[in-house]
Amino acid sequence: MDPSDTPRSSPAQPAPETICARPNLLPGSSSTPLVPAPQLSVVYRFEGLDHVDAVYQGQADGFVYARDGHPNASALAARIAALEGAEAAAVCGSGMAASAAVLLSELGSGDHIAFAEQLYGKTISLIDRELRRFGIEATGFDATRPESLAAVLRDRTRLVMVETLSNPLLRLPDLPVLAAMANKAGAKLVVDHTFAPLLCRPLELGASYVVHSGTKLIGGHSDLTLGLVAGTHEEMDRVRRLASTFGLSGNPFESWLACRGLATLPLRSSRCCATALELAERLTRSSAIRAVHYPGLPDHPDHERARTLLHGGFGAIVTIDLGDRHRADTFIRNLGQIPFAPSLGDVATTLSHPATTSHRGQEPGLLDRLGITPGLIRLSIGLEDPADLAADLEQALATLS
Fold it and tell me: What's the CA gap between 268 and 216, in Å, rounded?
């Protein structure tokens, strides 16, 4: 007989394999941790069949499987809902997953969505290309011109989707007017609020859904990928079910990281907005720059609307137009301290080139209409000293002359 087959006389002395395989439960404690811990378990244990029935039927609190929900997502969702003045919120695997969850939960074959042509390039691809495969019609409009929306609304329009501040030219639509128009037509307004957390509450302005890429300013450290949606209890129940079915849910560790980032969001937002305004004003004085786009500048086409709708600043993004691709590339290569990193919202300042990153692959005609030129540079302002950032930018601009 193999010695390993010999039964053990005492179950109190399990084999090493058993000791290694079975997890210990956490020790009990009359005190609680100050910082909630990440709950990384994929699955949860039950006392028996009645217990699992009660959890599934909502008669008892609990979790079953991480794709359906977990404590860290619940904690993050509760804070996002409170932040947006919503009844509830949901956590998805990315900003695009959050947008997809909303679109797929509201739209079916034969339905129509009106989308702002100023949306993020991947969002346009999702709406105007992928959703068409499901028999969903889509029409673009200029979100800064309400009459443009009126011209595309149909009987089957179910959603209207815009951004609070557009990517990358930072145009600000009249959200209350668009919401009223959508609601009158029997549609819901969806607002991608990624560029402007804390600066306004789209739900209070008439939107039905607010969507965030939590990867950006909410996470704040370029170390997580998440999406967030807020709305009514009924809407969020539907979004969560769909996110689970399509595999769009966010994971525990990154939900925990997002809660950590959220704690400093007000401080970061205030500092970045102030620095962005200061730099935008300085950059307008540079002869090397064709145009500076920032809603805090008096000559921005939506400046007065921004003064009315936004509170606490005009955002952390400043976009400049250097004229052509060669000048943009020269500028990028001479910015030793500000990296070319195609995202935004980090604690450190970064830059991106929309024509080759966020809007890559879009129709040239659309880029022309939006003013997204090969010379456009999008700056995501971080927490550095404004004078240091100004010096970095000015020395790179000097190389263009």
Answer: 12
